[in-house]
Amino acid sequence: MLFDCGEGTQKQLMKAKLNFMKIKRIFITHWHADHWAGMIGLLLTMNLEGRKEPLYIYGPEASRFVRDIMDLGYWGVGFRLVPKDVPYEGDDVTKLLSTKDYEVTSAPMKHSVPAVGYALREKDRVNVDIGKAEKLFGLKEGPLVGKLKEKGEVTFGGKRVRLKDVSYVKKGTKFAYTGDTMSCANIALLAESADVLVHEATFDDDVEEEMHSSVSDAAKAAKAAGVKKLVMTHFSRRYLDVSELEKKARKTFRNTVAASDMMRITV
Question: Of 14, 137, 245, 247, which sits 20 to 30 A from 80 (CA to CA)?
Fold first, then answer.
């Protein structure tokens, strides 16, 4: 999954040694060029590399904009592009995608054009505590453990082993991404209890800008949502050194970092 696709995305993915052919879904927050223009080159390179599987593109008015992008050339691409329109008005969190392992949701943001934010949440997992299973029943790692997770109980050594007696719940991690937005209540709804919130912080607090967030706006949003870590991004080019912005945000929300190229975060 790729969230936004600004100019240079293809090059950055290659620098990071990531295989862009594995991308199955692109989530666009809004159709300002710095958030989608890299998609043109990316789609054409995927086509050149012989992609056959469909690519799903989510975003506000995605059907309209994906069609317009494909009209820019003569032949289009040799794989199926599937636009998915994302609601961009109101105050509801919408479930866009759900699998056995995770779900992706969205919520409208407040910007100068239709805009949304996204959240990716892993579903909670029930894991077997092997140490406990061995201590209580003599059950060790192996095929029977998989059967226990699937069926809920097994018989081992003449004893009935129930999953609930030897398991624990591993909470799924959650990532939230605002795209471009001014401060609004939907941010906290979307990012509630997220492990990581990637939030725009275009300007310092002394700049009056209606359609973007300031450093303090981002920090307050992280605090209101109860997230664990705030990653600020989308800084104006006027700030050559963002370390002071990072320090300012930490006064409101301590666990804050400023994003940088090739940054990797372990959750």
Answer: 14
Q: Which two tokens stand for residue 37?
A: 């223009």
- How far lies 79's CA from each of 6, 40, 59, 89, in Å? 21, 14, 19, 31
What is the dihedral sign for C-alpha 34, 35, 41, 44? negative
In this structure, the strands spanning 229-233 and 55-59 are unpaired
DSSP letters for 163-200: GGGSEEEEPPPEEEE--S--S-HHHHHHHTT-SEEEEE
Quote the CA–CA distance of 129 and 134 in Å, as a whole number: 9
pLDDT, tens digit (0-9, with 9 covering 90-100), for 184-229: 999 999 999 999 999 999 999 988 777 999 999 999 999 999 999 9
Residues 211 and 111 sit within 8 Å (Cβ to Cβ) = yes
The residues annotated with a catalytic role in the active site are: 34
Report the b/e string of 151-175 with b at 16+ CB within 10 A.
Answer: eeebebeeeebebeebbeeeeeebb
Question: Which token pair is 136?
Answer: 């209580």
For residue 31, the tally of other CB atoms under 10 A from its CB is: 19
Residues 6+ apart with CB under 8 A from 264: none
